[in-house]
């Protein structure tokens, strides 16, 4: 779960990390009120979960009121890689002489958190990692002991951070690690940490992603997640408790189990179609979940046809069939053609129950996907 | 032969009195697994389907000589349950639970390096040696005895591939779900190493997915150490970067590491054919036998 920059910065500031003065704004008027208070230069930053906001035109620096108005008009409401910008952060510009990267993430391979520091700040760190991996200093933290303060200092010096600010940067990093642990973050980074001409340090950006599996013990962050949905369908999926990802195609996909649902998406693509979504109803789903899943996919206006693929282990084919019937019998006319494939536990019982006047049925995954792709093509022709 | 579990495996079920634990313990017993004990704090002295329940894993091991555990404990308490299994020095612990916080698993992983216990999972369907034992939630009826080893990060994808194999009359020595989380116990390499050492396994299927570098490491291992032929499948070719595709571990990073293509390329470079469809995978297996 990704927090917005402004949410993360509030958390950083509360923990004692210096951040520039800022205001949130959702209209041009609010932006102008904000710059009147903050002064110039002021950064106007789109609050959407999109990497490379700056390059895409989502961050502009205004040096006077006219510019602030112009940039506010440009950015508010703009489409940034598929997301509409509804909120901007208006932030005091920083007179910086240097930019650093500091972050904490989980090194999956090692199974340990890792501190990362680089003097190549302000650019995409993953590009730095690929092109000049030596430019990033790393230090693994023993997850059982937690961070020893010397480790934060060590990695900052190793990265070659200027000696006069090194301890301040180490202190930011140390606080970031505490936040990483305390808030069950999966990733936390400041890129850039700006060093000002007065040799102060400040966190000019903030990335904080929270482990979704830990939200049960992070109630405050779970509330922030609610505010953080940017897509009505993703919000709905969150309410239903589905694993759901929206894509740009027109073949709706429902299935059970992450690997099999991903495979169904891949097969849609393989047979010439375009997947509209990933939707995993999970293990052991009852009829009601199935009805909710169909409701989700039907409410996506991009979807032209649906494939419903179940391989029952703990999920039972008869429950799934019951759910499909209940969902579809409510319609005078089925909104989108649904192809169903049931296999595994109680698949035969399911096939007996399934109302085949309402759905198309295929025996194999491959055949079901091909038919759904064909159905989608027929709609778009 | 088989790997990791057989009809001598003596199983304690942690969480046997919960809904899932009770149901699947019953299914395991029905399949023929030696479920010798349950372990649930505060429920010692009870019995579930004739299986005696103990308050601690330690007591279960002491009284019933259990050597493997299956863990059906809710996410908030699951890491503690895994620690309990590891600290009791069982041969094998199978963690079925999905949704354990990653930082908890990092702590477990640290402990894992200090014990001889093998951990499978978490967030996995378990392990089955057809005709002998199953530890977990895999539907026993779709598997059959045979000479193909199967290792996978996903449950239902495993069932799909097994189904495609069954249609061709091909059975399994052992099928293993290693789990869909970012930090897991047994890796692809561990399972492949065991299959390579198993005389009865004549071919191996590995089903990977996006995220991490386990498949790439497996490819290197296959290229350098395996004579047994391997075929692969990688799910998530169409997954957009930065989105978690159901499994906590199934995520392509923003810069494009952990992609399906990188894994497919690594496997192909190691001489491992990767199927475009589950059907293709079965074709490859058939060609090996």
UniProtKB/TrEMBL annotation, chain A:
Q: Which Pfam families match?
A: ATP-grasp_2, Ligase_CoA
Q: In which pathway does it act?
A: Carbohydrate metabolism; tricarboxylic acid cycle; succinate from succinyl-CoA (ligase route): step 1/1
Under which EC number(s) is this enzyme classified?
6.2.1.5
- Catalytic activity of the protein: succinate + ATP + CoA = succinyl-CoA + ADP + phosphate; GTP + succinate + CoA = succinyl-CoA + GDP + phosphate
Question: Which free-text remark accompanies the cofactor?
Answer: Binds 1 Mg(2+) ion per subunit.
Q: What does the entry list under GO cellular component?
A: succinate-CoA ligase complex
Name the GO terms of the biological process aspect.
Answer: succinyl-CoA metabolic process; tricarboxylic acid cycle
Query: In what residue span(s) does the ATP-grasp domain sit?
Result: 9-221
Q: Belongs to which family?
A: Belongs to the succinate/malate CoA ligase beta subunit family.
Q: How does it assemble?
A: Heterotetramer of two alpha and two beta subunits.
Protein name as annotated: Succinate--CoA ligase [ADP-forming] subunit beta
This protein's species is Halorubrum alkaliphilum
From TrEMBL, chain B:
Q: Where does CoA bind?
A: 17-20, 43, 96-98
**GO BP terms, alphabetized:** tricarboxylic acid cycle
What keywords were assigned to this record? Ligase, Nucleotide-binding, Tricarboxylic acid cycle
* Pathway stated in the Swiss-Prot or TrEMBL entry: Carbohydrate metabolism; tricarboxylic acid cycle; succinate from succinyl-CoA (ligase route): step 1/1
Q: Name one GO molecular function term.
A: succinate-CoA ligase (GDP-forming) activity
Task: Report the InterPro entries cross-referenced here.
Answer: Cit_synth/succinyl-CoA_lig_AS, Citrt_syn/SCS-alpha_CS, CoA-bd, CoA_lig_alpha, NAD(P)-bd_dom_sf, SUCC_ACL_C, Succinyl-CoA_synth-like
Q: According to the UniProt entry, what is the EC number of this protein? A: 6.2.1.5
Quote the protein name from its UniProt record.
Succinate--CoA ligase [ADP-forming] subunit alpha
> What lineage does UniProt assign to this protein's organism?
Archaea, Methanobacteriati, Methanobacteriota, Stenosarchaea group, Halobacteria
Q: Gene of origin?
A: sucD
């Amino acid at each position: 779960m990704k927090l917005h920059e402004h949410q993360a910065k509030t958390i950083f500031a509360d923990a004692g990390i210096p951040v520039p003065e800022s205001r949130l704004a959702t209209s041009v008027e609010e932006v102008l009120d904000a710059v009147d208070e903050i002064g110039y230069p002021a950064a106007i930053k789109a609050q959407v979960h999109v990497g490379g906001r700056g390059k895409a035109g989502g961050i502009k620096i205004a040096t006077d009121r006219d510019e602030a108005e112009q940039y506010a008009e440009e950015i508010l409401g703009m489409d940034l890689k598929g997301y509409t910008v509804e909120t901007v952060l208006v932030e005091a510009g920083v007179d910086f002489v240097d930019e650093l990267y500091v972050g904490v993430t989980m090194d999956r391979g090692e199974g340990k958190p890792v501190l990362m520091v680089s003097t190549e700040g302000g650019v995409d760190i993953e590009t730095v990692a690929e092109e000049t991996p030596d430019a990033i200093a790393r230090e693994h933290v023993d997850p059982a002991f937690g961070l020893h303060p010397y480790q934060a200092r060590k990695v900052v010096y190793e990265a070659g951070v200027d000696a006069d600010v090194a301890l301040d940067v180490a202190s930011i990093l140390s606080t970031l690690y505490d936040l990483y642990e305390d808030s069950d973050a999966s990733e936390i980074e400041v890129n850039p940490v700006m060093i000002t001409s007065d040799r102060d340090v400040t966190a000019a950006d903030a990335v904080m992603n929270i482990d979704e599996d830990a939200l049960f013990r992070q109630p405050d962050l779970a509330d922030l997640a609610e505010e953080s949905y940017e897509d009505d369908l993703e919000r709905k999926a969150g309410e239903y408790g589905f694993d759901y990802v929206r894509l740009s195609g027109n073949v709706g996909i429902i299935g059970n189990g992450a690997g099999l649902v991903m495979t169904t998406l891949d097969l849609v693509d393989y047979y010439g179609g375009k997947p509209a979504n990933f939707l995993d109803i999970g293990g052991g789903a009852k009829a009601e979940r199935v009805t909710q899943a169909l409701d989700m996919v039907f409410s996506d206006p991009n979807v032209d046809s649906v494939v419903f693929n179940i391989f029952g282990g703990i999920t039972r084919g008869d429950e799934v069939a019951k759910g499909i019937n209940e969902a579809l019998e409510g319609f005078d006319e089925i909104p989108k053609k649904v192809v169903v494939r049931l296999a595994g536990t109680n698949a035969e019982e399911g096939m007996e129950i399934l109302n085949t006047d309402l759905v198309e049925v295929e025996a194999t995954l491959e055949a079901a996907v091909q038919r759904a792709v064909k159905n989608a093509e027929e709609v778009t022709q | 032969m088989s790997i990791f579990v057989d009809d001598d495996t003596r199983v304690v079920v942690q969480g046997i009195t919960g809904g899932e634990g009770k149901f699947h313990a019953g299914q395991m017993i029905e399949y023929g697994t030696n479920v010798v004990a349950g372990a649930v704090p505060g429920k010692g002295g009870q019995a579930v389907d004739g299986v005696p329940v103990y308050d601690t894993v330690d007591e279960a091991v002491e009284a019933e000589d259990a050597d493997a555990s299956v863990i059906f404990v809710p996410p908030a308490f699951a890491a503690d349950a895994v620690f309990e299994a590891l600290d009791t020095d069982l041969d094998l612990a199978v963690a079925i639970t999905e949704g354990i916080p990653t930082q908890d698993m990092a702590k477990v992983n640290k402990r894992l390096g200090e014990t001889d216990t093998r951990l499978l999972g978490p967030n996995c369907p378990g392990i089955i040696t057809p005709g002998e034992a199953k530890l977990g939630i895999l539907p026993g009826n779709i598997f059959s005895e045979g000479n193909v080893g199967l290792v996978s990060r996903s449950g239902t994808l495993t069932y799909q591939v097994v189904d495609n194999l069954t249609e061709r009359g091909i059975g399994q020595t052992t099928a293993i779900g290693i789990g869909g989380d970012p930090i897991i116990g047994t890796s692809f390499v561990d399972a492949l190493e065991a299959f390579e050492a198993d005389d009865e396994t004549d071919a191996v299927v590995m089903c990977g997915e996006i995220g991490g570098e386990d498949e790439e490491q497996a490819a290197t291992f296959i290229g350098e150490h395996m004579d047994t032929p391997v075929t692969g499948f990688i799910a998530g070719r169409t997954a957009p970067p930065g989105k978690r595709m159901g499994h906590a571990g199934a995520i392509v990073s923003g810069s494009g590491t952990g992609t399906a293509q990188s894994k497919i390329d690594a496997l192909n470079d190691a001489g491992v054919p990767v199927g475009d469809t589950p059907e293709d995978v079965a074709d490859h297996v058939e060609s090996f036998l």
